[in-house]
Amino acid sequence: MSGNMPGDGQERHHPLPEDNMPKGGVNAAVPVAAEATPAVDPRLIVRQEGVKGYLGEFKRRLSSGELGSLPVVVALIVIWAVFGSLNSSFLSAQNLSNLSQQIVGTGMIAIGVVFVLLLGEIDLSVGSVSGLCAAIFAVMNVTHGVNQWVALLSALVGGALVGLIQGFFFAKVGVPAFVVTLAGNLGWNGLMLQILGSQGTVNLSGTDIVSRLYSTIYGQQIAAYGVAVVGVLLFLGASLLDTRRRKAAGIPSRPVSDIALRTGLLAVVAFLAAYTLNQYKGLPLALLVFLIFIVVLEWVLRRTPYGRQVFALGGNIEGARRAGINVSMVRITVFMICSTMAAIGGLFLAAQIQSASQTSGGGNLLMNAIAAAVIGGTSLFGGRGSTWSALLGALVIGSIQSGMNIQGLSNAIQFMITGAVLLAAVVIDSLARRTQKAAGRA
Description:
Helix content: over 70%
Largest sheet: 2 strands, antiparallel
CATH topology of the domain at 69-219 and 281-438: ABC transporter involved in vitamin B12 uptake, BtuC
Strand content: under 5%
Low-confidence stretches: 1-41
Number of strands: 4
Order of helices and strands: HHHHHHHHHEHEHHEHHHHEHHH
Mean pLDDT: 85
CATH architecture of the domain at 69-219 and 281-438: Orthogonal Bundle
């Protein structure tokens, strides 16, 4: 807002007519101003009230449509409870460990989708891009004997170039993202078939870097517990550092008790997950890589000027443009990130089935990747979301598929239920936005 609004730190001086001036002159009004009660940040009141304050704040958030990740967490608990009651093997360490590996490919693609959705746009080409980059790696490394690291780098660069091309047509030429990426979905799939050639399928060696990234499992118990400890300590350190910076800047910060509670909850989840993984084979390297990407890219979104520009574009593009943000640059780079993450996801999916084929990137992969991002809590309307949405959404979709496979249900039933869950997520998002607007928070 401009400096014309009250409360912006600028003093206002208005001459008083002499006949309306209080007795004692102008200075008589000074004590009244001095007695004015300073504004207090409502978050401080909430924290001072303790548990009662947090419960009140929680109710206020629900009534104003600020649901956060609550719906997907509740959905995940319900899904696990239902399938666990139907078949005890669903909640076994083996099944949950396998699930943590199987969601990585789709989850990686979903991280990229989150970035595009934050702009309020969509990328319909991520499935084809994932298959194309898997084919590039397989053909270069297996068919032509190119060094595996060169082949890996070529696949990632290929994904980034796809995003650059699509982002250019969207940001510079003005073609709608829906049309650009829909055309890309067809074009990149055709290029993948051309690269694979007449043989159609290229089997990976099983000893290449991509296969090892997916199949490696650290069997030592210290690995899973060590990652849990490091994760909790990093969260605690980041929280304390953020509090210190806020205090130094004179703005509200989280009290130590709040940080301790959040750290404790994270520790429970982290060590429970580590314990479960250690009951089977141990910590899958693929899951660790997935979590690293989530944390790093979430930091980019929350803690860097670039990330704030992404949110700004999704919230109000015209306002972002007037604030001096390079809209074209942000749009192009977001599509590059999306396509690069699609390439990474495609490589993990290829390692999962040990091949790149004409069906790579096809089927319901595109819908699952988009559904994972949306079900996880990223808004289709832009401006709200998190890379953690990819993990939560992928867990929901993967749990549904795993549970139904254990029950022996057909793919048709799986598709219908996944579609219903996606629709429910979008409905919740729409209702939340409507409630926020009614409460003056959107």
